[in-house]
Amino acid sequence: MTGHLPLSGSRVLDLTRFVSGSYATALMAGLGADVVKIETPDGDPYRQQGTRRLADQTLLFLSLNSGKRSLALDFRQPVGRAVLERLLGRSDFLVENTRPGRLAALGLDYESVHERHPELIYGSISGYGEIGPDAERGGFDLILQADSGLMGLTGTPACGPVKIGAPVLDVGTGITCVMGLLAAHLVRLATSEGQLVSTSLFEFALGSLTSVAAEVLGGGPTPGLLGNHSPVFAPYGNFRTADGWLVLAGTGSEDLWQRFCKVLATEGLAADPRFADNAARVAHRHELTTRIERALAGGTSDTWRARFEAAGVPAAEVKDLAEVLRDPQVSALGAIQTLNHATAGTYRSLGPPVRFDHQPVPATGPAPVLGADTVAVLTELGYSEAEIDDLLTSGVAVSA
Fold first, then answer.
1. What whole-number distance in Å separates Cα of residue 272 and Cα of residue 353?
2. Are the beta carbons of 203 and 143 closer than 8 angstroms?
3. Is the pTM of this model over 0.90?
4. How many CA atoms lie within 13 A of 245 on its CB side?
5. Which of 12, 250, 354, 391 has the fewest other C-beta atoms within 10 Å?
6. Is 74 a catalytic residue?
7. CA 84, CA 106: separation in Å to the nearest integer?
8. Strand, helix or coil for residue 336
9. What pLDDT sits at residue 4?
């Protein structure tokens, strides 16, 4: 991209852990911010979690923390909290994902921080939101998939509710948080006033249900497990072919449905009164699916995909993750970044899902070694060499 990254020159004080918060601040690092990740002296929990490692680093931690700096600091101690306070005064954003109210005892809740640093924008991510009867409940992506109704739509009566394979609520909530922080930044440019930006996995999950919830809010029936097909469009789902599965979107307009029928070349399909319009097709989805899969059994997924796409009917083969990461489209977008870590060596990670001036966001630095930037950050904050030595000797701060 041309010029500076959007957040160049700004600093983020990162008090996050786990996926949603860490992903949000990693995006901000990708957008050019100096993200100072505050870790307790024993490190972020994800430094030890996960199933695969590169040398002494987990791939889970590496993937969520590229481009950040690590200040290992015990801010539960008064002297450590004084360091954090000085850093607050030199930061533009603070992002945290603790349960609501948990930081108040340390004077790090929004109200306390805003009183001392009114220009700071404070980002807060939680499981269920900052107010309401469930506000104090903790929740990971899996828990919120169940509690938001999302898992209640995913799966079939035969297999029961199924979780989504990737942590989409964590990632989506992280993106939503960054969207709010950037909006608040625009307000601050005009008013010089910071504000609280709060979001939650529960709220993002509700947002993702918008089109399905509209039917229920409008007095329609409560959908059950929806399996591989849409409750409001048909044909719109996953269909078996001779060698696998093909996702087809053969509705959206009646013209699209006619083109779908022409490709399928199944006699009488377009004229069948059971399939006369979208509502009728939804009502007779089982019969329609049977007719479609009977025709698709005569060819491979790849062959059918090419035929449907040539007719302007959206279609896609169901791919596994390894296939996707090798896909030429992924390469063309520059979606995978290669980074070089001080102890783990070279690793690859997905970059921010946004482009500027037709170019991907340039790769940031790798994820930091625990305490790699402790001395540098303390020096920037004006601490003398002797004061830094005292912090390190006492164990309040840790340097790599």
1. 43
2. no
3. yes
4. 9
5. 354
6. no
7. 11
8. strand
9. 83
Place of tokens 């603790």: 98
**What is the number of residues in the chain?**
400
Answer left, alpha or beta for residue 236, where phi above 0 means left and psi between -120 and 50 means alpha: beta
Q: Which residue has the tokens 């509209």?
A: 214
Reading the block at residue 310, the tokens are 């040539």
Q: How far apart are the C-alpha atoms of 123 and 113, rounded to whole Å?
A: 12
Find the catalytic residue in 147, 170, 243, 390. Answer: 170
Q: Which residues touch 301 (CB under 8 Å, ≥6 apart)? A: 241, 242, 243, 244, 245, 246, 317, 318
What per-residue confidence (pLDDT) applies to 215? 85
Mean pLDDT by 10 residues, the chain (400 residues): 81 97 98 97 93 92 97 97 98 97 96 98 97 94 97 94 96 98 98 98 97 90 90 93 96 94 94 96 95 97 97 96 97 96 95 94 95 98 98 97
Provide the residue type at 143 as one letter: I
**Shortest CA distance to 88 belongs to which of 193, 170, 13?**
13
Angle between helices 168-191 and 201-208 (to 10 degrees): 100
Strand partners, 122: 94, 196
Distance CA 236, CA 218 (A): 22
Q: How far is CA 141 from the centre of its chain?
A: 10
Rounded Cα gap, residues 193 and 206, in angstroms: 30
Residue-level pLDDT at 302: 96
Q: 257 Cβ partners below 8 Å, 6+ apart? A: 250, 251, 270, 275, 278, 281
Q: Which H or E run contains 301?
A: helix 301-310
Secondary structure of residue 236 in the 3-state scheme: strand
Q: Are strands 315-317 and 336-341 parallel, antiparallel or unpaired?
A: unpaired
Secondary structure of residue 88 in the 3-state scheme: helix
Cβ neighbours around 380 below 10 Å, total: 15
Residue found under tokens 């996960």? 50
How far apart, in whole angstroms, are the C-alpha atoms of residue 41 and residue 77?
Answer: 12
Check if the beta carbon of residue 39 is closer than 8 Å to that of residue 370. yes
Q: Do the Cβ atoms of 86 and 41 come closer than 8 Å? A: no
Amino acid identity of residue 153, one-letter, is L
Q: Please check whether residue 347 is in contact with residue 356, taking contact to mean a CB–CB distance below 8 angstroms.
A: no
